């Protein structure tokens, strides 16, 4: 589903993945754990099991609703699935500094959440 124009490429081994101007995958079907790792490296994030839990919640949310969640729905979904201690903005900000909804969606291979600047 190549909907955006390719701005630059992410190279992993001998394969190239198109990214839009904000660094999101142009084709969501290109996503893989290796792509997530490479995107995380660009963000200065070393993915841990805590990060992968959130990425899985995001990908499940997208599969269900066909959109990446903004911060409030992300916090709510994480809380429902992983428990109240993880369903907190401060927890997500520790894992994905800056804008957790945007950064996590990017690493999960999803489009930029709506209502995120």
Q: How would you sum up this structure, described in words?
A:
The structure is a single chain. The protein is mainly alpha-helical and 117 residues long. The protein has a single domain (8-107), classed as Arc Repressor Mutant, subunit A, CATH 1.10.10. Helix content is 47%, strand content 9%. The protein contains five helices and two strands; from the N terminus they run ββααααα. The protein has a two-stranded antiparallel ribbon with strand order 1-2. β1 (8-12) and β2 form a beta hairpin. α2 (49-65) crosses α3. The longest helix has 17 residues, at 49-65. It is globular and about 40 Å long. The model has no long low-confidence stretch (mean pLDDT 93). It comes from Halomonas lysinitropha. It holds the Pfam family DsrC. Part of a sulfur-relay system. The active site is at residue 116. It is found in: Cytoplasm.
């Amino acid at each position: 589903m190549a909907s955006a124009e390719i701005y630059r490429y992410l190279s992993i081994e001998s394969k190239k993945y198109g990214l839009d101007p904000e660094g999101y995958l142009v084709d969501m079907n290109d996503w893989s754990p290796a792509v997530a790792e490479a995107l995380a490296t660009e963000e200065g994030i070393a993915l841990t099991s805590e990060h992968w839990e959130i990425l899985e919640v995001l990908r499940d949310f997208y599969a269900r609703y066909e959109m990446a969640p903004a911060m409030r729905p992300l916090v709510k979904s994480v809380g429902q699935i992983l428990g109240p201690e993880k369903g907190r903005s401060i927890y997500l900000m520790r894992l994905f500094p800056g804008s957790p909804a945007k950064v996590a969606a990017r690493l999960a291979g999803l489009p930029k959440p709506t209502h995120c600047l």
